[in-house]
Specification:
mainly alpha, 2 domains, elongated
Length: 218
């Protein structure tokens, strides 16, 4: 039953990614990533921005490029009747963009595949940004966890009744925030570098509320 709670948010995330792949152009995604990179450099500094990009690129290369998934996606999904260069790309390398003389359908399929991989790299870049905020996030969540347990102990000592509504709302809010961030990872709009920190802060608040209203029999 609990697993069913995640079914619709995950389906919504996948639908959001699919819609972005279908309707968004590759130049739009590139401009989004350039704008986001400028914000990273301005707000976090050049060294931190370089580290975030390097980690995302390492993940992307290890997961998709070195394994041949990027090149294979072009071979399988992109029509090969316009040019033979897409079928002779060595495994582990990214195919070049379609030539200007390529047919309409070749350009269409090639553009959609390119957008998909650009969005995948963007998602890994934003995940890398979130990882860089983890130490600060733990500094927010751990004290909130302890505070929530202490508040629960105080309620038990004073024979106060915990609120099941607040507990359920806090759990639902955490689930929605996680699903929301997964959706944001694929949106072709610049994401402020402070966004993961805001997510950690809201998560800490929900953790404290949920634990303070946790029933004894849970």
């Amino acid at each position: 039953m609990r697993a069913a709670h995640w079914r619709w948010p995950l389906l919504l995330v996948l639908l959001n990614a699919a819609v972005c792949v279908v309707i968004i152009g590759d130049e739009w995604v590139k401009r989004t990533m350039e704008g986001e990179n400028r914000m990273l450099t301005t707000e976090l500094g050049g060294a931190e921005a370089t580290a975030i990009h390097a980690r995302a690129l390492r993940w992307y290369t290890g997961l998709f490029v070195d394994s041949g998934m990027v090149a294979d996606s072009y071979r399988v999904l992109v029509p090969a009747d316009s040019t033979e260069q897409q079928t002779t790309v060595p495994r582990g390398q990214v195919p070049p963009p379609p030539p200007a003389t390529a047919g309409f359908f070749f350009k269409l399929f090639s553009s959609r595949v390119q957008v998909f991989w650009l969005l995948m790299y963007q998602a890994l870049l934003r995940l890398s940004l979130a990882v860089s905020w983890v130490p600060v996030g733990l500094c927010l969540i751990v004290p909130s966890f302890v505070d929530g347990l202490m508040r629960r102990r105080i309620k038990q000592s004073n024979v106060e009744i915990a609120s099941p509504d607040r507990f359920g709302f806090s759990i639902l809010a955490m689930q929605l925030m996680i699903a929301g961030y997964l959706m944001i990872m694929f949106l072709p709009f610049p994401l402020p570098p402070i966004a993961p920190l805001a997510l950690f802060a809201l998560t800490a608040l929900c953790v404290r509320t949920a634990l303070s209203h946790l029933h004894k029999n849970v």
